[in-house]
């Protein structure tokens, strides 16, 4: 009898603890809340692309360069591919590929969602300089798909005070780069492609953090999330026209709690050295000399 009573007491205590946990953290991944979250994110992206689409597609790339070197007649000679007139297309394909998730904790709704974009196309014109020989080239790159993970919070009661807490690139899938116009310098193809691939990936990271992330972070505080029982449409929060009563400067709040993905400061790819056998060096040097009418 005593053992049965103790077991019953343990079950009652466990039940009470579960109720307290449920009241503290509420998981809201039912159809209505997921639908509200999906509609909110979709309309947020749609409005952002309408206002800033001219910045996204085409997105103009900065001029850059790729350095390389090669031994010619036992002498190490440096070359360079200068890239200009670059741009990216396809960034307006940014979308939500799957349902979001919504949970409540400490008076806030936490929304998690994945974003995607693709296919992205990259273009560059360029000139190559090697031993005073300078063919013009065209570079084309393709990124099959870009995956981004985003998280933000809003007030659970009002749906306001939106704040972006996480925005990172998960993966860049299917990057391919080709170059044409090298002629007798086709031996430098792999080294130019390697450098341009690094440049393209750096530009994607830079654009994602400096443009997309910033535009979303700016809009979240100005829109009302449709809380449970409310309209699923986004309602823009009106601007406050009255001056604040407090004169004390508010405490500065960081834009995100997670450090953003590091963005390379330089877009110039590192110089790469071509290492070949003496026979290959002599043959390719002969081809270059013939092209330049030296022999």
TrEMBL record:
Is Signal given among the entry's keywords?
yes
Spell out the residue ranges making up region: Disordered: 239-279
Q: Which UniProt keywords apply?
A: Signal
Return the Pfam families for the record. Grp7_allergen (PF16984)
Signal peptide annotation: 1-26
- The Acidic residues compositionally biased stretches are 249-279
Name this polypeptide is given: Uncharacterized protein
Q: Which organism encodes this protein?
A: Larinioides sclopetarius
């Amino acid at each position: 009898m005593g053992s049965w009573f103790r077991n019953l007491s343990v079950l009652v205590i466990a039940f009470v603890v579960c109720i307290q946990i449920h009241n503290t953290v509420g998981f809201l991944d039912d159809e209505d809340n997921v639908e509200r979250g999906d509609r909110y994110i979709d309309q947020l992206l749609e409005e952002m692309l309408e206002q800033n689409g001219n910045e996204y597609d085409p997105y103009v790339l900065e001029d850059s360069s790729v350095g390389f070197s090669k031994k010619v007649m036992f002498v190490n000679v440096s070359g360079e591919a200068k890239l200009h007139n670059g741009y990216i297309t396809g960034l307006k394909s940014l979308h939500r590929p799957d349902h979001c998730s919504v949970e409540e904790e400490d008076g806030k709704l936490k929304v998690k969602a994945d974003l995607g974009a693709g296919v992205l196309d990259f273009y560059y014109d360029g000139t190559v300089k090697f031993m005073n020989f300078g063919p013009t080239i065209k570079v084309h790159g393709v990124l099959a798909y870009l995956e981004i993970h985003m998280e933000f919070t809003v007030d659970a009661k009002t749906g306001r005070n939106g704040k972006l807490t996480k925005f990172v690139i998960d993966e860049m899938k299917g990057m391919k780069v080709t170059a044409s116009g090298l002629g007798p310098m086709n031996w430098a193809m792999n080294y130019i492609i390697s450098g341009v691939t690094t440049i393209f990936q750096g530009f994607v990271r830079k654009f994602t953090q400096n443009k997309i992330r910033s535009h979303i972070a700016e809009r979240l505080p100005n829109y009302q999330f449709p809380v449970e029982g409310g309209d699923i449409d986004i309602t823009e929060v009106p601007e406050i026209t009255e001056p604040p009563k407090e004169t004390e400067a508010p405490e500065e709040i960081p834009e995100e709690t997670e450090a953003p993905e590091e963005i390379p400061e330089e877009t110039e790819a590192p110089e790469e050295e071509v290492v070949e056998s003496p026979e290959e060096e002599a043959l390719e040097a002969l081809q270059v000399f013939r092209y330049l009418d030296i022999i």
